[in-house]
Amino acid sequence: MLLRFVLGPLLFLMFFTVYGIYAWQIPLLPFEQYEAVDSSTLPKIYAGLGVIFSFLGVIAQYIKYRDEGDDHAPLGLKKENIKTIALVILLMVIYSALLEPLGFIVSTLLFLIAGFWVMGERRGRILLLSSVPMVVIFWLVMTQLLDIYLAAGTFWS
Amino acid sequence: MFDALMVGVDAAFQWNNLMYVVVGCLVGTFIGMLPGLGPITAIALMIPITYSIGPSSGMILMAGVYYGAIFGGSTSSILINAPGVAGTVASSFDGYPMARKGMAGKALAIAAWSSFTGGTIGAVMLMVAAPTLAEVSLSFYSGDYVMLMFVGLTAIAAFSSNGEFLKAMMMTIFGLALSTIGIDPSSGTERFTFGQPDLLDGLSFLLIAMATFALSEALMNVIKPDKQKDEDMGKGNLGSFKLTKGDVKEIAPSVGRSSVLGFLIGVLPGAGATIASFMAYAAERNLAPAKYKKDFGEGAKRGLAAPEAANNAACTGSFVPLLTLGIPGSGTTAIMLGALIAYGLQPGPLLMQDNPDVFWSVIVSMYFGNIVLLILNLPLIPYLAKVLVLPKPLLTIFILFFSLIGVYLVSFNTFDLFMMIGFACIALLLRLLTFPMAPLLLGFILGDMIERNFRRAMLISDGSMNWLWERPLTLTIFIIAIVVLFVPLFGFMKGRLNKTTATPD
Amino acid sequence: MRLFLISLFTLLCLSNTAMAKDHFLIPGGPGGGWDTTARGIGEALMKSGLSDNASFQNMSGGGGGRAIAYLIEIGDRQGDMLMVNSTPIVIRALTGQVPYSYRDVKPIASIIADYGAFIVRADSPLKTWDDAVTELRKNVRSLTIAGGSARGSMDHLVAALAVNAAGLEGSRIRYIPYDAGGQAKAGLLSGEVQMLSTGLSEALEIAESGQARILAITAPETIPAYPELPTLKSLGYDTSFVNWRGLFAYPDVPDEKVQEYIELYSKLLKTPEWAAVRDRNGWMDLFRTTDDFEADLQAQEEQLRELMTELGFIQ
To answer: Which intervals hold domain DUF1468 (chain A) (predicted)?
Structure first.
């Protein structure tokens, strides 16, 4: 499929165009009006270069597609892996959201155990043995040894 | 000079100081391995402890921590592709592929030995030439730094060997663009912040590094598991932990060159271990004979040895402006400067005269620190490498955890975590479309420095570009950069030209 | 299994009591100015026995805004938490970079002060501040003045303020921003720029090593420890500038607590342990409490608002 080849450069082309639009809108402080180089100069340059290179990239990929044809396998992703990764990403988001309310210890424990489970580890003993010591040791080292404050859970206090 | 040196050796050899070096190295290594904590945090935390033990001992402890942290950073770079310290990013380019190929032990050994050599050569150069080098520290103007960073950018050529030049360029510019997010350092205007207060400070290096390297790599392994490699690693196939004579012969010239290069770059206040490691990597790749060159990016021994030697040498070099002029070259040395002043010492030309014992004991302890680091870490390598033997589900989740908590520890901001996850997803997509990650990080790191120095040069010259050719130094580096950038490009185009003309009609 | 649950429970309880008696909220990262100040204060508190336990929480982001938001939001739940802050809180509130000002929190007291200083290289043709003014009179853009922070931030403002006081257009000076004090110092010593505007504590470091000369400082009166340093006022330029660092509590803190704090810190500043920390860092005492402190803040806000409008940093 042609799309698979040019998707990357195409996405970049879109990104740099949008970036460029915003670059032209960067508000300049009054005193910057006199200057040759101001806050928006480099972003504009990057946007310009980016558009050029991604455009070239689209062309290059198109040429490649034309030369090599469509006998390349698609991305080659198995359905079950996609499901796993979606769950993992979801878990990370949940962990980040819960970190401060529930506190470091609880949220990390939950994340680790849920993560292991999603990744295929089902043995209860391993789940606990791999997560609890890690969390405890980490917490001890951080708060007691290094005097770094870890979220205590705004929910509880 | 010799008896002053002996004063330093004497101080360094005292039992308590030896202990401090050891403790410093161990603590530093541990802290360096955790992505979120870097040498800066480590040293900042150590400072109160150092107050009670006196200036020379304090500096010795901090130097130990500094080096330890760099080595710890290398370890996580190599084993799990999570460069927690900007100076160790370049080590992951070839270190991680080596680990994935089952040569984790050897990779760590190369890192340890190269770091040791780099640091030692640096220490020797420091001993011999510190006062004269003070002048070198002050010789670079903003324009020169721009050119230097530009040469550093040419390292992207290293990631475009297989004709993926355009993709590497897109990623580099993407990285440069990302570095513009936040408040502009020169004029204070907000750029691309969309009213989000959390974006005012821009994106943190750690966030991007973790997202594009560690997280996306871990996620990649989930979505496209490499059954063979997983089995190999699971079996504990870590390869030997020693360097053979052949290995040594292969990397020796790289290590030598990179150490000198790294040291000199470290001497410049505006450039440090990060630039040094990238430039050493680029230089070695360009200088490598064909049989080694093709491995760069996939596990070349030289590709790992060069940045490792350079970053340690640069760390040592950054002590030159610190001790001789009182100018800190990096965040870490800035803290050390604060500590020195807190001890009541005045870093600068007077330090060598008034407090030679501090000056020389620091230098000697550095040499020591390198030896101790090697002695301590070599035996640790088999245990460190064992991390990779963990079953994949566990290892992956741990890596995710380390990355997340690492970034959290820097800013204590959950918004950063969400951003990192978002970037990791983007990085994952890009990886699936075979875009290289390294140029992104390179562009991001250098973008900031290039812009600041460029705009400063323009400000000082009141809007004209004549700083480019006003001083011979600037012009020279500029020419080098052009040559390094365009020669491979020229070769690439020539290759394509040949290809097209060679196709029969 | 039961053992596991019990230990987990104990841990949870322990983790919540990790809140110590004197908790300092630091709007920046470890090693920065705020961080060193907070940890210095904490150290003196503990060493002098005035406190059982001092703990520190770094919360950088948003130019200090995050910490302020945090303080406002959970200050009342968090025991004895005080936030460290300094002049930038006034500056950034004016530019709108931070959506909060000192009025959104309760100023308790300023503890130390730093002043601005102007330095040139030892071999510079400018021997006195008056020499510099002479040069600037010919062309206000003739001197390059470096600082360790962005345009529109403190180092720039202080330089503009001083130039204004000489009757010249402070808004047109050539201010060259560097990333940090260290880099700016390198710029000065290498000869890339001609003058450096920085904090007095930093200036003293360079001057004492003989590499540079302090032309003037922005203190309102001559500093007893360094009587040879000319203040702008003593040279005939009627202006001064103070970069204070102080402590803030959450907005609705009860008056008894405020009194408690004031008493605690009055005691602290008299202890030899504090004197050791202070001198070690080159700080100067500036203990001004609640009402006095607020009056100072207001005066500074006015001074800076005028200056920044003139410079075009705010509309």
So the answer is: 9-150
Structural domain range at position A121: 79-145
- Write the single-letter amino acid at A90: L
Query: A17 touching B, CB under 8 A?
Result: no
The reported pLDDT for the residue numbered B274 is 86
User: Does residue C151 come out as left (phi exceeding 0), alpha (psi in the -120 to 50 range) or beta?
Assistant: beta
* pLDDT above 60 for B28: yes
CB contact under 8 A, B138 and C189: yes
Give the Cα separation of C217 and C232 in Å (integer): 6
Residue A69 vs residue B483, higher pLDDT: B483
* Cα atoms in the Cβ-side hemisphere of radius 13 Å centred on B50: 30
Low-confidence ranges of chain A (pLDDT < 50): none
- Measured between beta carbons, the chain A residues lying within 8 angstroms of B454 are 37, 42
Q: In 3D, which of B477, B354, B435 has the Cα closest to residue B169? A: B435
Helices B356-385 and B15-33 cross at an angle (nearest 10°) of 50
Neighbours of chain B (3+ CB pairs under 8 A): A, C
Phi/psi at B232 (5° precision) = -55, -50
In angstroms, the CA A8 to CA A3 distance is: 9
| Structure-token pair, residue C96 | 């709108």
Asked whether the beta carbons of residue A154 and residue C11 sit closer than 8 angstroms, the reply is: no
Which residue in A has a C-alpha nearest to residue C173's C-alpha? A31
CA B400, B402, B407, B411 dihedral sign is positive
Q: What's the rounded mean pLDDT across residues B224-247? A: 66
Q: For residue B336, how far is the Cα from the chain centroid? A: 19
Right CATH for C19-105+250-290 from 2.60.40.10, 3.40.50.2300, 3.40.190.150, 3.60.15.10? 3.40.190.150
pLDDT digits (tens, 9 = 90+) for B402-459: 888 888 877 778 888 999 999 999 999 998 888 888 889 888 988 888 898 898 888 8
pLDDT at residue C118 above 90?
A: yes
In chain A, residues with a C-beta closer than 8 Å to the C-beta of C19 are: 152, 157
Yes or no: say if B294 and B313 are a contact pair by the CB < 8 Å rule: no
Nearest-Cα distance to chain A for B238, in Å, is 22
Token output for A85: 């990764």
Show me where the domains of chain C are located: 19-105+250-290, 114-217
Report whether pLDDT(C193) > 50. Answer: yes
- With an 8 Å Cβ cutoff, are A153 and C15 in contact? yes
Residue C16 to residue C76: CA distance in whole angstroms: 16
Joined together, the tokens standing for residue B262 give 């790294």
> Which residues touch B450 (CB under 8 Å, ≥6 apart)?
B146, B149, B150, B153, B176
pLDDT digits (tens, 9 = 90+) for B41-100: 777 667 667 766 776 677 778 878 888 888 888 888 888 888 877 788 889 888 888 888
In angstroms, the Cα distances linking A105 to A110, B487, C8, C214 are: 9, 55, 9, 52
What are the domain boundaries of chain B? 2-502
Residues 6+ apart with CB under 8 A from C167: none
pLDDT at C20: 46
Q: Does B189 touch chain C (CB under 8 A)?
A: no
* pLDDT digit string, tens, across residues C275-307: 888 877 767 888 888 889 989 899 999 988 888
pLDDT the model gives residue B24: 82
B184 to chain C, minimum CA–CA distance in Å?
8
Put simply, whether C16 touches A (Cβ < 8 Å) is: yes
Nearest residue in chain B measured CA to CA from A94 = B418
Structural domain includes residue A157:
no
Residue contact A29–C152, C-beta within 8 A: yes
**Chain C residues within an 8 Å CB radius of B186:** 150-151, 177
Residue B87 carries which side chain, given as an amino acid letter? G
Judge whether A29 is closer than 8 Å to chain B, CB to CB. yes
ipTM of the complex: 0.88
Class of domain C114-217: alpha beta
